[in-house]
Design brief:
With 557 residues, the chain is mostly beta strands. Among the domains are: 176 residues, Pectate Lyase C-like, CATH 2.160.20.10; 71 residues; 110 residues, no CATH class. The chain is built from one helix and 53 strands. The strands form seven sheets. It has a 27-stranded mixed beta sheet that branches. The chain has a 15-stranded parallel beta sheet with strand order 6-10-14-17-20-23-25-33-35-37-39-41-44-47-49. A three-stranded antiparallel beta sheet has the order 51-52-53, with no helix packed on it.
Length: 557
């Protein structure tokens, strides 16, 4: 009697065992699996079995499904000199019009084990490689311990594709990103856990500049991103153009250890493939104990380093205890820093719309840089609430947009908020707790900045809790904020700007900005045609209005 398996499309399904696979965790079953997949029918792996494979791409074709609930595919022990894969449509990631689209593919329930402890590799391994895919679903998968030393391996990569869904998947320990979204649209991630990239990020989204094919878009919901590897650089990275929505997302990282100091730099020298030495080029200052030092890049395995400081509070030396190996170029040396929760970079515009986003235990909660007009908008943002972050929000991207409505930012000793040269800032109803550096807000020329209804608590900066800059083309609005238990309950406004309704009375220090109260230095409000009317303000539905004359009101949002 012939066994018939019915696939989701009603067609027949096959088992690798029909071509001789054993699934005993010892025998190499690669050839049998390839023959099963070559039928283009749905393939069923048997629960409880472990199928050994050799890293050859297991290719999937359109309308093909893989069922593997309770089954494991495991990389065979050994030494490998080529790039390695489990499943995918193709190994390419750059646009190639000759490669056909692979559509309507499903992978359910299988465990992919990279067997990192029993292999030696010259490159990296990828779990699922999707190139020019359409309508792929990955559900209930577990991808773990993918080996790699070159930053070329991913848990899942979607490249030049459209509509990829990941549901209830777990990815732990990849070489580069747990998930890489490269010029792919509608990449959705729901109810997943991504638990660490050894060299990069949990999730990276972006593309070429300019795009070869399209700008990446995606949505991440009900998901935890946690990158606690000290060599990992970020948790969520937007680079090269990524438009992503976040809802109910937890981000957790590694805050680093700076030893209380700043400014130290160093360079590495490579010899024989290993790290021969590290030279301290600037000892920095203020180090109370030795900071943690690590390296990134160069294509090698991680060395063991030991950092020492001198009696003057400077980094004195970084000794190479174990040199690592396989370095083709000298890596970058990092001293004292950890990873970023959300990192936004590149000359291409990136966008985030986040709701109920929680970031903990990172060096910086959010960091944006470069000159691209990035747009970040959050509601109910929490940074450092469960586990402190070193710094809160830092933005140095000119012409960008930053909007936050509601949340808490709590830091261990750095700076809670720093936004310089952004075109549009709107920060409302946020509580900033801690920090030893004043909050800073400096809009770009012709920009806007509204800082309304916020609280600044427990900041230990000596002179000011907040510094605000502005000019005649960009007048920041500082309204209805409350300062409590800071070393200095003072907001210093440099240049132009307007302040009203802030507490305690007299907390504004300015010689040029317009304010409705006596300043902290006892000076009268700045002379201006608007000054006599600045005592009249109101708030309706969260929008602050000031009277510009006895009959006209101007919205400040």
């Amino acid at each position: 009697m012939t066994q018939i398996l019915i696939g989701p499309s009603g067609g027949g399904g096959v088992l690798p065992e029909w071509w001789g696979a054993l699934g005993d965790g010892i025998t190499d079953d690669t050839a049998a699996i390839l023959l099963a997949l070559a039928t283009t029918k749905d393939v069923y792996f048997t629960a409880g079995k472990t199928y050994i494979v050799d890293g050859t791409l297991l290719p999937l074709v359109s309308k093909q499904s893989v069922f593997g609930y309770g089954a494991t595919l495991k990389l065979k022990p050994g030494t490998y000199t080529d790039r390695l894969y489990f499943f995918g449509s193709h190994t390419n990631i750059s646009w190639d019009a000759s490669i056909p689209v692979t559509e309507h593919v499903r992978i359910f329930g299988i465990f992919l084990d990279g067997n990192i402890d029993e292999v030696t590799v010259s490159h990296s391994m990828t779990g699922v490689s999707i190139f020019k895919g359409f309508d792929w679903t990955l559900e209930d998968m577990n991808i773990k311990d993918l080996p790699g030393v070159t930053g070329e391996g991913y848990g899942v990569i979607g490249s030049m594709s459209d509509t990829i869904h990941m549901n209830r998947c777990i990815i732990d320990r990849t070489d580069r990103s747990n998930v890489y979204v490269w010029e792919t649209t509608n990449f959705t991630i729901d109810n997943c856990q991504f638990l660490g990239s050894y060299y990069r990020d949990c999730v990276t989204g972006g593309g070429n500049i300019p795009p070869q094919y399209q700008t990446s878009t995606g949505r991440i919901t009900n998901t935890k991103l946690s990158n606690s590897y000290i060599t990992g650089t970020h948790v969520l990275r937007l680079s090269g153009g990524f438009d992503v929505s976040l809802a109910n997302v937890e981000i957790d990282g590694y805050p680093g250890f700076d030893g209380g100091g700043t400014g130290a730099t160093a360079t590495a020298t490579v010899s024989g493939g290993g790290i021969a030495s590290i030279t301290v080029t600037n000892g920095g200052s203020g180090y109370l104990s030795a900071p943690y030092s690590y390296i990134y890049g160069g294509g090698g395995t991680i060395p063991v380093l030991e950092t020492t400081i001198n009696s003057s509070g400077e980094v004195d030396a970084i000794e190479v205890i174990s040199p690592g190996g396989s370095y083709s170029t000298a890596p970058t040396v990092y001293i004292g820093t950890g990873n970023e929760g959300i990192y936004v970079v590149s000359a291409a515009k990136n966008r985030i719309h986040g709701t109920n986003v929680r970031i903990d235990n990172t060096y910086r909660g959010i960091f944006t840089e470069t000159t691209a007009p990035h747009a970040l908008e959050f509601s109910n943002l929490e940074i450092g609430v469960r586990q402190l972050c070193r710094h809160g929000i830092r933005g140095t991207s000119a012409s960008s947009i930053l909007k936050i409505n509601g949340g808490i930012v709590r830091v261990s000793g750095g700076q809670p908020f720093y936004s310089v040269y952004a075109a549009h800032n709107s920060v409302k109803n946020v509580t900033f707790i801690g920090g030893n550096a004043a909050l800073a807000l400096y809009p770009v020329e012709h920009g806007t900045a509204v800082f309304d209804g916020n609280s600044i608590i427990g900041n230990t900066a000596a002179s000011y809790s907040m510094l605000v800059g502005g000019d005649a083309t960009a007048e920041p609005i500082i309204s209805n904020n409350t300062l409590v238990d800071n070393t200095a309950n003072v907001i210093r406004m440099i240049g132009f700007g307007r302040a009203t309704g802030n507490m305690p009375v007299g907390c504004i220090d300015t010689a040029t900005a317009i304010t409705d109260e006596i300043t902290s230095t006892g000076a009268a409000p700045a002379s201006s045609p608007l000054a006599p009317n600045m005592t009249h303000y109101d708030s309706v539905s969260g929008i602050v209005y000031l009277s510009v004359n006895m009959s006209t009101w101007k919205a400040l949002n």
